[in-house]
Automatic annotation (TrEMBL), chain A:
Protein name as it appears in the record: Binding-protein-dependent transporte inner membrane component
Record-level GO cellular component terms: plasma membrane
A Pfam family assignment: BPD_transp_1
Domain ABC transmembrane type-1, residue spans: 73-277
Residues annotated as signal peptide: none
Annotated organism of origin: Novosphingobium nitrogenifigens DSM 19370
Family according to the record: Belongs to the binding-protein-dependent transport system permease family. CysTW subfamily.
Location of this chain's protein in the cell: Cell membrane
GO biological process: transmembrane transport
Superkingdom field: Bacteria
Chain segments annotated as transmembrane: 14-39, 68-95, 107-127, 157-179, 200-225, 258-279
UniProtKB/TrEMBL annotation, chain B:
Keyword annotations: ATP-binding, Cell inner membrane, Cell membrane, Membrane, Nucleotide-binding, Translocase, Transport
Name this protein carries in UniProt: Spermidine/putrescine import ATP-binding protein PotA
Organism annotation: Novosphingobium nitrogenifigens DSM 19370
Cellular-component GO terms for this entry: ATP-binding cassette (ABC) transporter complex
Domain of life: Bacteria
SUPFAM superfamilies assigned to the protein according to its UniProt record, in alphabetical order: MOP-like, P-loop containing nucleoside triphosphate hydrolases
Described purpose of this protein according to its UniProt entry: Part of the ABC transporter complex PotABCD involved in spermidine/putrescine import. Responsible for energy coupling to the transport system.
GO molecular function: ABC-type putrescine transporter activity; ATP binding; ATP hydrolysis activity
InterPro entries membership: AAA+_ATPase, ABC_SmlMolc_Importer, ABC_transporter-like_ATP-bd, ABC_transporter-like_CS, Mo/tungstate-bd_C_term_dom, P-loop_NTPase, PotA-like, PotA_ATP-bd
Main EC class the enzyme belongs to: translocase
Length: 290, 379
């Protein structure tokens, strides 16, 4: 009996290691190790061109709180928040329409959101530039109406437009998967009890799928916060986001410790957002249990 | 508790006029015309996929008929969305809103109707009392059992005081004991509130026990609309006879057809079947005779041969050997094989306590029935 049990548990633990060894090695080698190195750099100081001494200093973090950088963090958070809000406003109805579309319509709507997503980011961003620049298609169109040209490229407007375009799939796909699992009879019951469609959406659908909405918001907000290419190519001098500053530290400024500290500030913010999400989930769970 | 259906009012509340519903090339409902009276507990009964749920959903406005008209209280429902119809529905999954407590669920429809708070509270309390959930007003749905959730759905629909309450398989998700209790309670509630109930079910026991009238459907068409007893005793065709309860069906030809009696010869039995009424079929027409198992009497073969009807003494008596028996407590079901190789199902009440089964397998028996027992079906 004892033999048998140990044999079974031994067998299943062997299977466990066989399945999980590759991902564990992968995560350690390409995530934990490099991240730890960068993390230790954030407590260091540049010695020469390529050398960093990890001294345990907090100077780099103190520098992060310099108003210049705080302003850029604030701007990044604002861009990410506006982007997420617009994505939600556009994406929720889109996901809702997708949920109730015919199977054929579902595929078309899914393609509409996935095709740009599958296209290279650089190509998409240059395409947006072609659309928005002063001699671009929008201004050509406005010119025909006798308006313009309107300066769009290299403005904050261009950055937000680009960020929304890039991050829409991040909000539509999780929303769709949540809405698709929603019990249709809840909607029918609401209509049956006399509610109109808008009331049904706001009083039944939204509250019931709220955890899914929060996940989608986070899934959109986090990558938007760390955007690099979009603000760099579409933005103007005052649309810098934090990723561009980080890049400059690692490259032109050659200040890896400060770049590392900035990177980890971004990481802490992201972690805070995830903790908030887990906490609000737990709170919702507790509320339900009472 | 009595579960006898409420008396009919004679006033038509719901009228289906040649209603059809097609999904692509699939015909879910095929040219159904049907009147339901005010105050009825009406049941739409049939096997799964027969169109009964589609018919109910069209009444609620959740599906649109491809053809035909649906009238409620004389008003054509075409183009009227579900939220403007004088009907409310209890969904199969109950569809209780998970983010609202019991009282808020029940109050939802009244808030939409802008019922003043004082009246709303009173009506919610009244509805919860009706379904015996007064102590659960502030519970959340995930703290309720399946039976309690169903009561919430019922209260939420009834509180709107609809002209018609629609119930989609209301008891299917409950366990057997609870189902029996709810069956009686639903019928009681229906009598108390006097609202017309239209219930979809695939369970004939449910329909027979609760409904004042049933419509039996198959493949989108109405097979028969009748009171439960009439469906059982006077089925309109073989499908109805076979769907409701158990029946022995014998194919045969009409050998005699007089106004007050008829006889059918069948290859399935070595005796003709005599009935005490005429059949308006052509002579020598192909017919089916149905005899319910409980209407066949069984006596041991060593007893004297039972006498057949006066007009045709050789009819309605045959013999066979018991091949299987199933003891069900109140009755025992026997399969009896006749000399012609036909299996006849016989159900005998266990009127006295005795060794089970009363007649062991292998016993030779007489089978006989009165001329009022068989039903003759022409299609």
């Amino acid at each position: 009996m004892t033999d048998k049990t140990s044999h079974i548990s031994g067998g299943s633990s062997g299977a466990f290691w066989a399945v999980s060894l590759a991902p564990i090695v992968w995560i350690v080698l390409f995530f934990v190790v490099p991240l730890s190195v960068i993390w230790s750099y954030s407590f260091g100081r540049t010695l020469g061109l390529t050398e960093v001494a990890v001294t345990g200093t907090l100077d780099n973090y103190v520098r992060v709180f310099d108003p210049v950088y705080l302003l850029i963090f604030a701007k990044s958070l604002t861009f990410a928040a506006i982007t997420t809000a617009i994505c939600l406003i556009v994406g929720f109805p889109y996901a809702l329409v997708m949920t109730f579309a015919t199977p054929r319509g579902k595929i078309l709507l899914l393609l509409g959101i996935m095709l740009p997503f599958w296209t290279n980011l650089l190509v998409r961003t240059y395409a947006l530039m072609a659309v928005m620049r002063t001699e671009g298609w929008i201004n050509d169109g406005l010119g025909l109406l006798g308006i313009g040209p309107v300066e769009m490229l290299h403005t904050n407007f261009a950055v937000v437009t680009g960020l929304v375009y890039v991050h829409l799939p991040f909000i539509v796909l999780p929303l769709f998967s949540t809405l698709d699992r929603l019990d249709r009879s809840l909607i029918e019951a609401s209509l049956d009890l006399g509610a109109g469609h808008l009331r049904t959406i706001f009083q039944i659908v939204v509250p019931v799928v709220l955890p899914g909405i929060l996940s989608a918001v986070l899934l959109c907000f986090i990558p938007a916060l760390g955007s690099y290419l979009t603000p760099d190519l579409l933005g103007g001098p005052d649309s810098q986001m934090i990723a561009s500053v980080i890049e400059r530290q690692f490259k032109r400024a050659n200040d890896w410790p400060f770049g590392a500290a900035l990177s980890f500030m971004l990481m802490y913010l992201t972690l805070a957002a995830m903790v908030w999400r887990a906490w609000s989930d737990r709170r919702a769970g507790r509320k339900e249990a009472h | 508790m009595s579960t006898s259906p409420s008396p009919l009012s004679g006033k038509t509340l719901i009228r289906f006029e040649n209603v059809s519903k097609r999904f692509g090339s699939f015909i879910a409902v095929d040219n159904v015309s049907l009147d339901i009276e005010a105050g009825e507990f009406f049941s739409l009964l049939g096997p799964s996929g027969c169109g009964k749920t589609t018919l109910l959903r069209m009444l609620a406005g959740l599906e649109t008929p491809t053809e035909g008209h649906i009238l409620i209280d004389g008003v054509d429902m075409a183009g009227i969305p579900p939220n403007r119809r004088p009907v409310n529905m209890v969904f199969q999954s109950y569809a209780v809103f998970p983010h609202m407590n019991v009282a808020d669920n029940v109050a939802y429809g009244l808030k939409i109707d802008k019922v003043p708070k004082a009246e709303r509270d009173a009506r919610v309390a009244e509805a919860l009392a009706l379904v015996k959930l007064s102590d659960f007003a502030h519970r959340r749905p995930d703290q309720l059992s399946g039976g309690q959730r169903q009561r919430v759905a019922l209260a939420r629909a009834l509180v709107k005081r609809p002209k018609v309450l629609l119930l989609d398989e209301p008891l299917s998700a409950l366990d057997a004991k609870l189902r029996d209790a709810m069956r009686a309670e639903l019928a009681q509630i229906q009598r108390d509130v006097g609202v017309t109930f239209v219930m979809v079910t695939h369970d004939q026991d449910e329909a027979l026990a609760m409904a004042s009238r049933c419509a039996l459907m198959n493949r989108g068409t109405l097979q028969q609309v009748a009171a439960p007893g009439d469906l059982y005793e006077y089925p309109a065709n073989r499908f109805v006879a076979d769907f409701i309860g158990t029946i022995n069906l014998f194919e045969g030809t009409l050998s005699t057809d007089e106004p007050d009696h008829a006889a059918v010869t069948t290859a399935a039995l070595d005796a003709p079947i005599h009935v005490n009424h005429g059949v308006t079929g052509a002579p020598d027409a192909r017919v089916w005779v149905g005899i319910r198992p409980e209407k066949i009497a069984m006596t041991p073969l060593d007893a004297p041969r039972p006498t057949g009807p006066e007009a045709l003494p050789q009819a309605n008596v045959t013999s066979g050997i018991i091949v299987t028996s199933a003891y069900l407590g109140s009755v025992t079901l026997y399969d009896v094989e006749t000399a012609t190789g036909t299996i006849v199902k016989v159900s005998s009440p266990n009127g006295e306590r005795s060794a089970n089964p009363a007649l062991p397998t292998g016993t030779s028996v007489w089978l006989h029935w009165t001329p009022t027992a068989p039903v003759v079906l022409v299609n």
